[in-house]
Amino acid sequence: MEPTLPRPRGGFATRAVQGAAIVPDVAQTPVGPAIWPSATWSTPRSSEVGALLEDAAPGYVYGRYDNPTATTLHNVVASLHEAPAAWSLASGTAAIHGLLSVLRGKGRVLATSRLYGGTWALLRRLRDEAGWQVDHADLLTPDSLAAALTDEHTVVHVETIANPSTAVADLAGMAQVCRARGVALVVDNTFASPYLCRPYALGATAVVESATKYLAGHGDVVAGVVAGDDEVVTAVREHAFELGGSLGPFEAWLVVRGLQTLPLRMRASGANALALARALAASGRVARVRYPGLEDHPQHRLAREQFGGRGFGGVLSFDLPDRAAAEAFADSCTVFARAASLGGTHSLVLHPASTSHRQLDDGALAAAGLGPGTIRLAVGIEDEHDLLDDVRQALAAADHPR
Ligand SMILES: *Cc1c(COP(=O)(O)O)cnc(C)c1O
């Protein structure tokens, strides 16, 4: 039986407004994730608002600080990353900004040169507008990191799996170097998700992910998360609400909903990606098939150990002879959609030279490990045979570009 609520009182307009704040006191636990889209929260006594604003009591005060749906998200993300705490922000980029801001102090940032394009743009803007000092080096191994680190660096930023080369970083090894040098290590784990890799458990200071990708997993929300110690996460939280970047309840709800199927989606998309990578490598029609699950991938063994044998992710890349062939391939796909992003249920095809990396000439493309004919596939969870058929017919179309 539906609980009876106290009826709103007053005039027609007052009842219309104040009736919305009369909610059932539900003692049961909902099975589906709950959502409270309230921008502000009331308290029995005025003094309690002050305590909430000062973080002296648990509870909610204002939606820019946090919301109960986000609290559920933080709890799940911390658990999956085997970290004490987690926080959510309005995008992966906001999460990277928040985390690097609090860990940098006033020191220099050392970031991998195999960086997600949006993170390049973020760091360039912080350098130009906020005076950040940022260096880049090819950071995959403890040795490459040790060679690039100087005493001025306070934080190192690397990615678990690089885009679109799929190079895999030795996180435990780099965490040891950072610890010995007293430098924070931030790992962007977006391409792996906590299903494959838990950088905090491997010794990183903190993990950051674009929840837009595998965590939410359905291509219907933009969000970011960080996970780490209480101290780091509290600092990110304060940074987020003072700069205005906290995640809203509707977005948090979509991520919580998507996270429930993370292991199923990671398994399905990893199995599809491995089948496609093997078929492409065996076809003899493309060059440099890059996927960590292939035995000839440079970090195949590291990836198998670091990802616990749970798979190698859903992203792979390969090279067609030239730009025209790559464009013909992408244009003729019917199951793969031509779109940026990754990590959703839907398979996507991207031609970096004409999209994400369009500002680069062929020389700069080569420096980024790309060619004019490179294709990136972000593999979803559709039927394997449909994806294989689509790639086969697109390869045939690439043989005769218009
Ligand atoms: C998408 C992505 C980001 C940025 O995340 P947004 O949610 O788009 O801000 C950062 N790093 C990697 C590796 C990504 O794929």
Main beta-sheet annotation: 7 strands, mixed
Structural class: alpha/beta
Order of helices and strands: HHHEHEHEHEHEHEEHHHEHEHEEHEH
Estimate the strand proportion. 5-15%
CATH superfamily of the largest domain: Type I PLP-dependent aspartate aminotransferase-like (Major domain)
Please tell me the overall pLDDT: 95
Count of runs of 4 or more consecutive helical residues: 15
Shape by Cα distribution = globular
Number of strands: 12
CATH architecture of the largest domain: 3-Layer(aba) Sandwich
Strand order of the largest sheet: 1-7-6-5-4-2-3
List the helices and strands and how they pair.
Blueprint: H1 12-18, H2 46-53, H3 68-80, E1 85-89, H4 92-104, E2 108-112, H5 117-130, E3 134-137, H6 142-148, E4 153-159, H7 171-181, E5 184-188, H8 193-196, E6 206-210, E7 224-228, H9 230-243, H10 249-259, H11 262-283, E8 287-290, H12 300-306, E9 315-319, H13 323-332, E10 337-338, E11 348-350, H14 362-367, E12 374-378, H15 384-399
Parallel strand pairs: 2-3, 2-4, 4-5, 5-6, 10-11
Antiparallel strand pairs: 1-7, 6-7, 8-9, 9-12, 11-12
Task: Considering the chains and any ligands shown, give keywords for the structure.
Aspartate Aminotransferase, domain 2, binds pyridoxal-5'-phosphate, 402 residues, Aspartate Aminotransferase, domain 1, globular, 5-stranded mixed β-sheet, 7-stranded mixed β-sheet, 15 helices, 2 domains, alpha/beta
Description:
The protein is α/β, with parallel strands linked by helices and 402 residues long. It has two domains: 66-259, Type I PLP-dependent aspartate aminotransferase-like (Major domain) (Aspartate Aminotransferase, domain 2, 3-Layer(aba) Sandwich); 263-398, Alpha-Beta Complex (Aspartate Aminotransferase, domain 1), CATH 3.90.1150.10. Helices cover 41% and strands 14% of the residues. The chain has 15 helices and twelve strands. It has helices at residues 12-18, 46-53, 68-80, 92-104, 117-130, 142-148, 171-181, 193-196, 230-243, 249-259, 262-283, 300-306, 323-332, 362-367, 384-399, and strands at 85-89, 108-112, 134-137, 153-159, 184-188, 206-210, 224-228, 287-290, 315-319, 337-338, 348-350, 374-378. It has a seven-stranded mixed sheet with strand order 1-7-6-5-4-2-3, sandwiched between helices. A five-stranded mixed sheet has the order 8-9-12-11-10. Strand 2 (108-112), helix 5 (117-130) and strand 3 form a beta-alpha-beta unit. Helix 4 (92-104) packs across helix 9. Bound molecules: pyridoxal-5'-phosphate. Pyridoxal-5'-phosphate (PLP) binds at residues 91-93, 116, 118-119, 159, 163, 188, 190-191, 210, 212-213, 222, 224.
